[in-house]
Structure formats: C-alpha cells, structure tokens
Amino acid sequence: MEWNAGIWSIIPPIIAIVLALITKEVVFSLILGIFSGTVIYSLLTGMGFISFFDVLMELMIGKLGENSSMIIFLCLLGILVALVTRAGGSRAYGEWASAKLKSKRSASLATSILGVMIFIDDYFNCLTVGTVMKPVTDKFKMSREKLAYIIDATAAPVCIIAPISSWAAAVISYYPAHSGSGMTAFLKSVPMNLYAVLTIFMVIWVSVRKNADYGPMLKAERRAMTTGELGAIDNTEAEEELSKHTKRDGKGRVSDLVVPILLLIVLSMLSMVYVGGFWNGEGLSLFEAFGNTEAGYALALGAFGALALTFVYYLARKTLSFKEFFSCINSGVSSMVPACVILTLAWSISGICRDYLNTGGFVAEFVQTSGIPVQLLAPIIFLIACLLSFATGTSWGTFGILIPIVIAITEIAAPELTITCLSATLAGSVFGDHCSPISDTTILASAGASCNHLAHVGTQAPYAVTVAVCCFIGYIVAGFTAGLGLALSTIITLGTALLLLIGALLVLPKVISEKGFTLKKKIPLLK
User: Fold this and answer.
1) pTM for the full model?
2) Most CB contacts within 10 A, which of 33, 184, 267, 517?
3) Among candidate residues 159, 66, 237, the one with its CA nearest the CA of residue 399
4) Domain range enclosing 243
C-alpha cells in the first residue's frame, strides 16, 4: 500500500522493542505493540477509537488463518519429539556412545554430532543431548560447563540453518508473502548466517583441538581434569522428570531416534518439491520447485507422514503400545503452545506495521534521505538484533519484530542487501538466544547438563562474543561486496569471517588465561 501513517507508523515496533527491553516479557510487549497499532490506524483513518476492536480481531484472525498450516506443523512436530523421547531412542544413543567412545575428544565429537542430528527443535535438543551424554562426558572428566556450552551451541545455531525445523517454519512464516518465497529466502540466507555457521565451526574446533579453551572455560576444564570436580549441581527433580520420558526398560534403540528424524527429513523434502510442482509436468527444476512451494503446507504434510510411519514403526517393534503412542499427543501439542502464541502475536504486529501503517515504507524513505550508507545496514541490523534478543532472551520474538521491517526497508532502499540483512537479523537473534541468561535454551542447556546456570553463562559468554565480533566485521564486508552479487559476496564475507575466527581461536588461548589477558602455561586438557 502507498499510504503510510508517517512517524506514527514506528510507534508500535518502538513500543514492542522498548517494553521488551524493560520488562523482558515478549508476549506482553507484542500485545501492547499490536494494541497501539490498531488504535493509531483506527484514529488516523477516521474509524474512531471503538472500531479498533474490529481491526484487531480482523487482523489476528486473518493472520492465524493465513498461517494455520504452520501451527499444525509445529503441533505435529511437538508430538514427534514427545514420541522419540518416550520411545527411549535418546537414552539408547547415550548407552551406545558410552560403550564405544574411548577418549575425551571422541566424547566431545559424539556430543556435538548428537546435537547436530537433533535439529528439529532446540528444546528437544537441549534436554536430550544433556541427559544422554552426561555419563559419557563425566567418564572423561569434561566439565559440566563445557558440556553445557556444546549443548547450547548445537541448539539454536543448528536449528536456525536447518530448513526442516520449528525455527525455519517461524522464519518462513514471518517473511512477507508479497516479497517472494519465504523458503527460497531462508535457504539463500543460510550461508550468510554467520553466527550460526561460525558457532558450529567453533564447537567442532574446541572439541577436537588440544589447549583450545580460554578464559573461564579454561578454568572450568582445568578444575575438572586436575581435581575431578566437574561442576555438577544436584538436579534430582529434573533428572526424575526426564527419566519418566526417556526410560523404556531397555526397549529403546538408537534407530528409535534416527528413523523418525530421517522420516521427517525425507518426507518433508519430498512434500516441498511435490507442493512446489516438481511432478506436475511443467518441467520445473528441483530448486524452482523448492522456491515455488508453500512451506507451511508442505512441512505439515511431511510431518504428518513422518508421524504416521513412526506410529507403524514403533508398533511393529513394540517400542510403544497403542495407548502410550496416543498419550504423547497432548504433551507434544502442549509443548508447542508458547511458540504458537508468540508466532500469532508476531504475525499480528508485522501485519499492523506492514499492511495497515506501512512502517517499512516510512523507515525506508528515512534511510534513503538520512544519508546513512546502505553498506552499513547489515552490521547495524546485526547489532540491533543482538541487543534485542540478548535483553529479551528470545530470538523468535526478535524475528517477529524485525524481519518484516527489515525486508520492507531493504526492498526499497537496498534490494541487493535483502538476503544479507535477513541473515544479519537471524544471526543477531541467535546470538542473544545462545548466550542471554534469561533465554529459555540457555536455561535448558544448564538444566540438561546439570550445570550451575550462571557458571554456564559466564563460561560461554567469551566464546559467543568472539564469534559475534567476527560476524560484525563480516557483515561490514558484506555491505561493501553486495554489488558483486549474492554468491560472490557470500564467499568473500564467509571466508573473511571464518579466517578472523580461526585467527582468534589460535591467538586467544595463548594470551587469555582463566585470570584474564596473560601468557599461560599449557596443560593438556584433551586426551
């Protein structure tokens, strides 16, 4: 729409952002942001204050209806996660790993690999990896702080680059439909999602290299190796609660974890190309079919198929009884209710800003006339996303607030930076989710590793900040190389950021001890 509310159009996102920073309550902040936007629209269009109720209901019901397939996908995904946990596949993986692994390096890698495998949901990732790998890592004297870091670093950063996950579903649903395929934009954003890519690289680096730790993490690892004090806390209640879902009297196998995940991946991908018209006789290529697909519907279709085949698989193996299988439905759906609430509110505030007030058009015009170099948009957006997600502890709320506005700005002010700025938004949001002390995944990583929460936050913060600094410099490079095309810009940007990180990881362990910046004596921590 050409009409916009002028400076009034930025009031709803400002209210949402400021209140989120102050109250740390994203749901409350989004509700007030939506409320203010509907009031402003009603008054400026002469509809009157009372009519804002009609606008509000029309907006929220419309957004929920448009994205109902995404809600269904999340609920089906929650059920599948509950089933895999109940079947005991996670516990079986832990038992297998404990018997096969012979060194601290292999234990670290196995923990990382499990974290990468469980990419469909970060909650499932944190609880599963921590529960099954603690006995293995304890055997080789890995500190609980290090375990919590590996868990946390393979939760959100992995989920945000996996096209078949609850996170991808959220991002795709936030992407404005008139701007093209959300799935295509998401897939293009993955290589430029510097924080996620570099964090996964760093996890592997510190898992396999000797003397790779520095700062507080080094102190924790030295304590564990020299004194045997792992930094574990008494987490009896949580352990008992988790054991209700993971213990299956020896029936669980590693395949009970692997098969459902593979089914979800394969069927979701087939559903995407099917819905995208790959087999409709029009001669579309595989990538064109992916770009043409309706992601929400395809993911829901794939998840339903995976759930049905998992039902047959578990019953055939007698892993779960008929009654046990269906008892997981309520708990699985319930686990996704908070995500569905945030999504609905985020869709609503993006709708009021984009469709009613044209916030993006106003801000884009301001950017064009203010003299701010467009080359600096990506690093600025990255910083804003970092601060907002760190302060609020949620990346999903940050997605919902920033993505529609960022896309609207870049499409007008700098179309060549649209994907880059989308990636910067995702990367900055994941940084906050990874290391914020009030983030749910950070808290779950501490709980899953039975590690003191503040100890986990303090030991992983230097690692997260190291990656974030490299990403910030990378996005500056991206802004100045955007004119070369997305592919070449991505190669240069990712290469620059990766080289910076490798340099930092080689230098920092030599100059930062557990007491600060000082040359330290090497003590082998990885055997």
Assistant:
1) 0.72
2) 33
3) 159
4) 68-517
